[in-house]
Amino acid sequence: MPVRLSRQKLIPALDIAGKLRQARPVDTPPILTAKTTAPRPRRKGRAKWLVIGLLGAAALGAAMYWALHKNEPPITVQTEKVRRHSITETVTANGKIYPVLQVHISPEVSGEITELPVKEGQFVHKGDLLLKINPDVYIAGTNQAYAGYESAVATKQTAVASLEKAETDYVRNKELFEHKLLSESDFIGFKVALDVAKAQLDSDADQVNVAQASLDNAVALLLKTTIVAPLDGTITTLNSQAGERVLGTVQNAGTDIMIISDLSSMEARVDIGEMDVVLVQAGQKARLEVDSYKDKKFAGTVSAVANSAEGFNTSSLLGSASGSSSTSGQSATQFQVRIRITDLESFRPGMSVTASIETRSRTNAIAAPIASITTRVLKDKSQPGAKTNAVPANATNVVVAETPGTNGSKAEKAEKAEKAEKAEKADKADKADKKGDEKNKPVEVVFVVEGDQVKTVPVKIGIFDDDYYEITEGLKEGDEIVTGGFHAIGHDLDDGKKIVKGTGPGREKSKP
């Protein structure tokens, strides 16, 4: 239960609280006036010291950069002096070996092969029997043609006899007509009969010629059922067997029965791109590497260069149909080049070959190793702000002078001057763009050794072989150039870089 206090007990507590709340007089605090702060005196030398500090920091940074740059370890390179060499430029291409002369045997008549006495790989002489086709149909055709010919001859003989009779009747009745013993109408009838007999004889003579041609054709077809070898050679391909039916080439493509090749004369047929084919000409020498003869190289001579690209005729016929299609999937343009092999060997048609054709050559030419040439964007060493008084060759200088007596107004002259000024500015802008592009274009350079540094020298190159570039401008005989390592030439070296000659790639470690 809560405890309740009586009123008598609460009164003393209230008296004590009254005593504690007794008021005490408090003095009013004095009001202080704000003191005026005097401006601090400005330091006149503060800006000067700031400038001195910045200049000192810049000088210290430049000194540190120079010290670090000076202490940069030299690049280890290999060098070589420029000498004269004989350079032969080559074009390399891949292809296959084929016989110079090969004949595809296809029948001119259709039928069943009854005889095939040869086999693949067999050597045959010109005139040897290759195959026979069933001649029954062609024998019947020949007999029919012969009968037609005999009939035409008999008809012609009848026409000859009729002509003789008509001539006799005409002569006899002519005498009667001259003596006026025969009427004119009857005489005309005998004359017409003579003309008809002559025409009939001419027609029958033509029919004899037609029958003779049909007989000759039938005999020719009969003879074509027997096929003999057209040349001395080897049967390199045999596609048919005895008993098969073949299709003739008279009105069709025909069946390719076999291929006879003269293996005593072989050639390499290689495909060369359009960028290199312009350098290839008939009569140029070539070196051939056949995959089947790894340790041997063969000599050859270019015998023919194709005048049109492979598949050009087909692509031109289908060009209108595929004109809207994308050309990204098309193969590269190739030209076939034939190389006659002068070294005899037991080549087989279809062997893979790699040909190196000698296109151009230089004797005693200044040359540099291929590894020593790289590309760089040359820095412009001209002083900024330099002025020149040279006037461009194609600059347009327009002077508008007011000549007394002219009809043009001042406004027209001002407009012409403004147009000329715009044209001149556009011309100068184009020249500046072209000049900037030429400056930013990488050029071929070599690094010439000068003491313990290198100098970037731009060069012009000519032909090249597997080892050297011909140098037409930029170097002279005896100059020492950097030839290695690969990373140094391609990335590290630049104009003024320090080098040290060594035997291997890499950088020399700096000494402490």
Helices, by number, come to 7
Radius of gyration: 54 Å
* CA-based shape: elongated
| Approximate helicity band | 25-40%
In total, how many beta strands? 20
Low-confidence stretches: 5-14, 16-23, 324-329, 382-407, 505-512
Q: Largest sheet, described in full?
A: 6 strands, antiparallel, barrel
Order of helices and strands: HHEEEEEHHEEEEEEHEEEHEEEEEHE
Terminal residue distance:
95 Å
Description:
There is one protein chain. The chain is an alpha+beta fold. It has helices spanning 7-20, 46-70, 136-178, 184-223, 312-317, 410-439, 486-492, and strands spanning 75-81, 83-105, 111-115, 123-124, 129-133, 226-228, 233-238, 245-246, 258-273, 285-290, 297-305, 334-341, 352-369, 374-376, 443-450, 453-458, 460-464, 468-473, 480-484, 499-501. Among the domains are: 66-82 and 373-379 and 433-512, conserved putative lor/sdh protein from methanococcus maripaludis s2 fold (Beta Barrel); 135-224. Helices cover 32% and strands 29% of the residues. The strands form four sheets. It has a six-stranded antiparallel beta barrel. The protein has a four-stranded antiparallel beta sheet with strand order 6-5-3-8, with no helix packed on it. The protein has a three-stranded mixed beta sheet with strand order 19-1-20, with helices on one face. The protein is elongated and about 165 Å long. Residues 5-14, 16-23, 324-329, 382-407 and 505-512 have low confidence and may be disordered.
